Amino acid sequence: MEAKQLNKVSLEEYLSIEKESQQKYEFHNGFIYAMAGGTYNHRLICGNIFGEIRASLKKESLDCRAMNSEIKLHVASENSFLYPDAMVVCGEVSKSIKDPNAVTNPKVVIEVLSKSTATYDRGDKFFMYRQIASLQEYVLIEQEKPQVEIYKREGDLWQISRVTGLEHSLHLPSVQLEIPLVDIYEGVVFEEES
Is residue 34 part of a domain? Predict the structure, then answer.
């Protein structure tokens, strides 16, 4: 999703603006960004990954919940509210004391990359996500080709791996899931194919 920066506001103003407008905004230490819609492939991949995670968690009877991009994430240490494309929260859902509509304890965060947000998702946004103590895996899904990057917490360090090709699977050891890339990209037509 692309975001458009608006003027600096207080946290209370942000929450009021979002409530009154029914529009999603990310909040970063006083600056709010209106969330613009993504491409067809972006939306399709987001739906696919959420659906696959939800079904797998249910099948495995794990005490975890899949959340889509309608659920807000509060990163208190960075004074930020974000809308990841998907998340997994395990155990009891911890909600923000600043906004009860935001969670604070994801185990997995997933973003679908776009040309305009890829640098931000790999840089500043990943820095914010790393401040979340419960976060074990951060997943970046390309929409232009079948490729997924997985950042896995190993103590104070993050290990990076990449999975490429529809014949491979995304492994999420923190929630004991394996999702074939062919399912993540179901229905997606890549540019070279069109």
Answer: no
